[in-house]
Amino acid sequence: MNDNTYNGWSNYETWNANNWICDGMMDVETMARDCLADSIEDETDMETAIDNATAALAEQMENDCSDLREENCQQSGLFADLLNNALSKINWREIAESYVKGIPIYATGYNMPGYLPDNDPAIFLDHADAVSRLAENIKNMFEDTDQAEQAEKLAEQIEREAQHGKPLQANFGGYVFWLEKF
Predict the structure, then answer these.
(1) Is the dihedral of CA 44, 168, 163, 103 positive or negative?
(2) pLDDT in tens, 9-59
(3) Distance CA 180, CA 109 (A)
(4) Which residues in the chain come in under a pLDDT of 70?
(5) Which terminus in the chain has less CB density within 10 A, N or C?
(6) Of the candidates 51, 79, 100, which is a domain's last residue?
(7) Residue 108 and residue 122 in contact, taking contact as beta carbons nearer than 8 Å
(8) Domain range for residue 49?
């Protein structure tokens, strides 16, 4: 069997492009977070949001690389043909996927045990924002009830005890409130 992979990447060209990108050629981490944030705004299904962000990042990296080639290299001749051939072999989606999958995603929501959730989970790229939303949900759901004071205390406790990246779960008022890292 013929294995054409290179250092864990689909080919040498992809591996080499990723090395240059990691060395600061592009600010891909910021680009990946921006693509994922935009995708999360447009999509509630996390798998679809990740797939859309990966596709958008791959396209953006390929376009940026193409722009750099046009600015810095001759357009025809032997070296242009060799460069274009190498660039055509880069698997931009594979590189994009490695960056997008490296970004932690947090989801938070609530539901009554035994019942389907009434709403889709809220998705965040920042743990602190997810913790704040969880606490806010607890306070808001019980704000005009006799459990409002207890809900306020629970929300404050969650905000105080939340540690970066850790999943949270709280049972209160017949509901389960949760935060997960994906």
Answers:
(1) negative
(2) 999 999 999 999 888 878 999 999 999 999 998 877 889 999 999 999 999
(3) 9
(4) 1-3
(5) N
(6) 100
(7) yes
(8) 12-100
Domain termination site, one of 68, 100, 132:
100
* DSSP per-residue codes, 104-154: --EEEEEE-TTS--SSPPEEES-HHHHHHHHHHHHHHHTTTSTTHHHHHHH
Co-location of 87 and 119 in the same domain: no
- Among 164, 177, 71, 158, residue whose Cα is nearest residue 118: 177
Residue 5: inside a domain, yes or no?
no
Q: How many structural domains does the chain have?
A: 2
Kindly state whether residues 94 and 32 are assigned to the same domain. Answer: yes
Q: pTM, whole model, 2 decimals? A: 0.82
- Give domain status of residue 4, yes or no: no
